[in-house]
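Archive entry: two folds, one per protein. Generate the first.
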Amino acid sequence: MSRILHIEASPRADRSWSSKAARNFLAQLKEQLPKMDVDHFNIWTAILPTFDGAAIDAKYAKLSNTPLTDAQSRAWKLIGHYVARLDAADAILISTPMWNLGVPYRLKHLFDLVTQPGLSFSFNPATGYSPLLRARPTAVLMATSGDFTEGPSYGRPDLATPYLRTALAFIGLKDADIAHVSPTIGLAEAMEAGARRTEGEVRRLAASFAARLA
């Protein structure tokens, strides 16, 4: 049985465009893989540990091969649970809005927690950084008020897509498929065209995931 981790990064619940697209995607995937298990991780209802104090000291201790204190060990063990949850999934789906050209701060918080030496990446002075997580089907459904599918929207750059693609690849989740759910605001004609494009992207992603997970 395959397990997909759905990281929901919108706090808007049923009003969220990205969450709605994710539900559509998961429903289509479930039709093709009836025994698929969904691990739903809402980062707005979860209590994410702060990354400061003992946690950040533990990271630098790991980087310098210094023994951890008891407090650092406890903080490191807690962070390890989040990396393990990520690594236990056979596929990853992130549904998120774009906020201020980037990602919501809670999603950035999660990336800061799971991007850790010895857990999700390694470093060798001779060879540089290497990811530790195995590649698997990974997709992002990102809702944006403007249409960024052809480039900047009214001069506004999309900083979220390159960040997500790079951050995921850094820990091993390479070649993430990022689909825009857009525009969520604007003229009716443009929004209708965007809805049709989104539906097509959801169908494509569901078929791709099903083929790779079968």
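Generate the second and append.
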Amino acid sequence: MGKIHDRSSEVGLWLGIAALAAIASLSFIATMSRYFLAAPIGWVPDWAGYLLAASVFVTTPAVTRRGQHVAMDILISYFTAPAVRRLLGGGSLLLTLAILAVMSWIVWQSLATAFKAGTLTAAGYPIPRWWLLAFIFYGFASSGLHVLRMLFEVLGGKNVDQAVPHAEAEGF
């Protein structure tokens, strides 16, 4: 199951990259259309926003898996005793997991409400609101699962440096 989760996170990373490329392409096309054809494309700003939101949340699990997120690790860097590092690392992973679980639950509730109500986004070219909330839920829930896996590794005896990957370790 872990390999499937890792692969789905990598697919999300590539989908996020594709979404960013689509934003750049759409913005270029819309600009050229406005200046050379005097025909602006009105839906591009709305779709650029939708694609940006989706790209952020589909890439978040891969970023979490690789440990490329912003980290405030001054305490764990200061202490060198393995037991203290494991305790601090495990505590921070547990707190992170709790936050991601609560956020996933809140977004899931909003997603279900928006789906039932048929709510649309407040935009010139609206889409069902639950579409965006689905990406947000995926980002929080899948990242939470990665953090849970890291926490199990720390509790299972791996030190924090082994359980929480760093960008340098993967060649990024």
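Annotation attached to the second fold: The chain is about 75% helix and 0% strand. The longest helix spans residues 82-117.
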